[in-house]
Every structure is written in C-alpha cells, then in structure tokens.
Design goal:
Elements: E1 2-9, H1 15-30, E2 35-42, E3 49-56, H2 59-66, H3 70-76, E4 88-92
Antiparallel strand pairs: 1-3, 1-4, 2-3
C-alpha cells in the first residue's frame, strides 16, 4: 500500500470553492477499485491550502491506472481552475 499526499493551494478568492470541489471530486477517487481510502483536510494556518490523502493498493494503481482512466478527469473536473499551478504530490509507504 502507498499513501498519496497532494497539497492544493487555492487561487485567491477561490478558497471555499476549492474546498467544495474537493469534496465533490473525492467521490470519484473513492470509486476506483484500488482506492482503499481517501480524505481531505484544510490547513488551519493557511485556509487556502488543502491536503488530499489517498491510500492506494499500489503506486501503479494510482500513477498508471487511476491517472490514465476516466475517473481522473471526473475527479479533476470540480477543482479545475480553482488552484495554483500543479499540486505538490508525493507517495509514502509505512517505514
């Protein structure tokens, strides 16, 4: 298993819209058969920052299968145009 951690920073004035978009879009991530869990949190000190945390069965399930499948576009639809540049994305394993 790997945990994907993605940090999104809202465009100025789009903080609430981005949060709502993440809530809508996360349902598409959860539909993927290799997604074990997915949740999002909002930064206390910087309310325009959100952290998406997704546990996948493997790195390939996320990078190869999900990102190249139809659910990825559905996930990104509700958040498109609401965040600065590309999110910072890394994958973690239990050490």
């Amino acid at each position: 298993m790997v945990t994907e951690v993605a940090i999104f920073t809202a465009l100025p004035g789009k903080e609430e819209e981005l949060g709502q978009g993440i809530i809508q879009g996360i349902e598409f991530i959860r539909q993927h058969p290799e997604c074990i869990s997915a949740n999002a949190t909002r930064c206390v000190e910087k309310p325009g920052r959100y952290m998406l945390s997704v546990v996948w069965s493997s790195l390939e399930a996320h990078v190869d299968d999900f990102r190249n499948g139809p659910l990825f576009a559905q996930w990104r639809g509700p958040v498109a145009g609401l965040f600065e540049s590309n999110p910072e994305v890394y994958h973690y394993q239990v050490y």
